[in-house]
Amino acid sequence: MKKKNFEKIIDVGLHLSSETDPEKLFKEIVNVSRHVTHCDGGSLYMKHDENLEFMISQNETLEKKFNMPGERLFKPFPVPLVRENIAGYVAITGEVIKIDDVYDISEDAPYRFLPKFDKKFEYKSKSMLVLPLVDRGGKVLGVLQLINALDEGNNVIAFKNSDVKMAKTLASFAAISLKNAILNQNLKDAHLSTIYRLVKAAEFKDPDTANHLERMSNYCKIISKHMGFDENFQETILYSSPMHDIGKIGVPDRILSKPGPLTHGERKLMEKHPLYGG
């Protein structure tokens, strides 16, 4: 690998490591992989139990043809985790596969190219480079699939050996970043689950609130987005706003569930629920 290309890969790796949102990371991995190998399309699959989940796809030719971005053109869907499927074979074996022409795969090969995608979009796949995304423990997290390498005149050619080296290095960085992003998201989900459990406890004390708190937290995030706040603030609002009435847990049932107007003393007790919440 040339020094210039190696430095480019290092820069890309550092950039990927700073992204903690899995969905944004999916998009970025495919985008930079296409850029460093100069190819027309790319897809990323995540491995889940007995399936591969087709997460994101980009294809410059088709995006221009249909005048829409890849995330709108290609929707996520499950793919059976089987060796006959090229992506499935890579996910199961952990091997890197380079194919010069997908329509001319040897009959002895353990996998086959399925032309369903080409037929649906009237596209012509030819060269393909498919790599596993493997974490530090050797576990395959997903598969990166690159399609149709291009020369300087944008003619489809086979992927070069230098492309394979760069893509393999990039896939290693991507797998580490992806693992960290998934762990980070799982931690956030666990925190939000804990908050909602506390919220449910408050709702149990006051049945009239139903799922009000969960709904309003999403409303708060949407409103903050339209007010121009950044994503970190939006996320903070999402996580913190459900707790605004949690102090009702400390209000006696006879007051919280009283059908009629509250007395002055009862009102004073009710007004303490922000203190209890704090």
Chart the SSEs and their pairings.
Elements: H1 3-17, H2 22-37, E1 39-48, E2 51-59, H3 60-66, H4 70-73, E3 77-80, H5 86-93, E4 97-99, H6 116-121, E5 128-134, E6 140-150, E7 156-157, H7 161-205, H8 212-226, H9 231-240, H10 253-256, H11 264-270, H12 273-277
Antiparallel strand pairs: 1-2, 1-6, 2-3, 4-5, 5-6, 6-7
Helix pairs in contact: 1-2, 1-7, 2-7, 8-9
- What is the tally of beta strands? 7
Determine Rg (CA atoms, Å): 25 Å
Summed up, the helix count is 12
H and E order: HHEEHHEHEHEEEHHHHHH
Low-confidence stretches: none
Assign an overall shape. elongated
Q: Strand pairing plus helix content: what structural class?
A: alpha+beta
Average of the residue pLDDT scores: 87
Q: Which sheet architecture does the biggest sheet show?
A: 7 strands, antiparallel
Strand content: 15-25%
**What fraction, in percent, of the residue positions are helical?**
40-55%
Distance separating the two termini: 57 Å
Q: Could you walk me through the main structural features you see in this protein, from its secondary elements to its overall organization?
A:
The structure is a single chain. By secondary structure, the chain is of the alpha+beta class. Helix 1 runs antiparallel to helix 2, helix 1 packs parallel to helix 7 and helix 2 packs antiparallel against helix 7. Strands 1, 2, 3, 4, 5, 6 and 7 form a seven-stranded antiparallel β-sheet that branches. Helix content is 51%, strand content 17%. The termini are far apart. The model has no long low-confidence stretch (mean pLDDT 87). Strand 5 and strand 6 form a beta hairpin.
